[in-house]
Amino acid sequence: MNCKKAGVFISASVDGELSLIEEQEFLLHLSECKECSLEFEEAKRTKMIIREKIIKFKAPQALISSIMQLTSFSTKEHEDTLLYE
Amino acid sequence: MDKPDPTHHTKNREKKESLSREERQKQLEFQHEAVVHLNTLYNYALHLTMNPSDAEDLVQETYLKAYRFFNSFERGTNCKAWLFKILKNNYINRFRKNSKEPGKVDYDLIKDFYHSIKDTRTDTSETDTDYFHSLLHEEVYQALHSLPEEFREVIQLCDIEGFTYEEIANMVESPIGTVRSRLYRGRKLLREQLEGYAKKYGFNTDNI
């Protein structure tokens, strides 16, 4: 494996998306190439940074209420019908 | 008004009750499978539109559609991925096909939000030399948003939402190999951006 091919493998390996054979091929290259090993460590950190630093916004209460209403509308209608009867 | 026929009335009520029971079951399942992803769906919509009211509309539409077509959801598969795909399609239909522009991008809102978060640069005593830890939320966010959409999208779906390559490939309607290489190239671009910030703070990134 050359370093160019290893680049894509680094990215996929960080995500645990290499096949068993690819992973072995990749690890073999890492053991021989210091540059790619460093690159691999860096890639892991970059992924971590994104996970940690990108804020997840929460849905506003009004939206939660309206979605809940959407899925309980018929139930409520059913209850109303029963009440009316 | 005629007095209602009591037999008819009972029959009618029975029919209603059984229909409702079915409907009720669907609702329970829908809440259990789909509604639990509301926050993450809204977050994704907000990142797509960068406008809270557009994001709310998108999520509303998505859930309406998802509920209507809930029977076609393949049980046992990832419901979150299914919802994301519906949302993405809605987004394209709304803002791309009709060449309608999304509402005004609310950069200020996002900026304010990120500013309201404690500056993590002050409490990183043991990792002073680590430029990654010096990055602000806002900077990582900006770096991500500076990427072309095709790259940003896969990074977001993979790193933030935790989807597998197969799920992402299905969502963006491209082969897995494409997802793989987009992630690789996108991350490379993102790193360059982040290193730009690091240089700004005087960190030496030559060895990285």
Descriptive key words:
heterodimer, A: 85 residues, 5 helices, 79% helix, elongated, B: 208 residues, mainly alpha, Rna Polymerase Sigma Factor, Chain: A, Arc Repressor Mutant, subunit A
Write the layout of secondary structure elements.
The complex is a heterodimer of chains A (85) and B (208).
Chain A (H helix, E strand, L loop, with lengths): L2 H12 L5 H13 L1 H20 L7 H10 L2 H12 L1
Helix pairs in contact in A: 1-2, 1-3, 2-3
Chain B lengths: L5 H28 L4 H12 L2 H17 L10 H19 L9 H9 L15 H4 L2 H9 L3 H12 L4 H8 L3 H25 L8
Helix pairs in contact in B: 2-3, 2-4, 3-4, 4-9, 7-10, 8-10, 9-10
- How much is the average pLDDT of chain B? 79
E-strand count of chain A: 0
Unreliable residue runs of chain B = 117-129
* Overall tally of structural domains of chain B: 2
What does this structure look like?
The complex is a heterodimer of chains A (about 80) and B (about 210). Chain A has about 80 residues and is mainly alpha-helical. Chain A has one domain (about 5-85). Helix content of chain A is about 80%, strand content about 0%. Chain A has five helices and no strands. Chain A has helices at about 5-15, 20-30, 35-55, 60-70, 75-85. In chain A, helix 1 packs across helix 2 (about 20-30), helix 1 packs parallel to helix 3 and helix 2 (about 20-30) crosses helix 3 (about 35-55). Chain B contains ten helices and no strands. Chain B has two domains: about 5-95, Rna Polymerase Sigma Factor, Chain: A; about 105-200, Arc Repressor Mutant, subunit A (Orthogonal Bundle). Chain B has helices at about 5-35, 40-50, 50-70, 80-95, 105-115, 130-135, 135-145, 150-160, 165-170, 175-200. With about 210 residues, chain B is mainly alpha-helical. The interface of A and B includes residues 17, 59, 63, 67 and 75 of A.
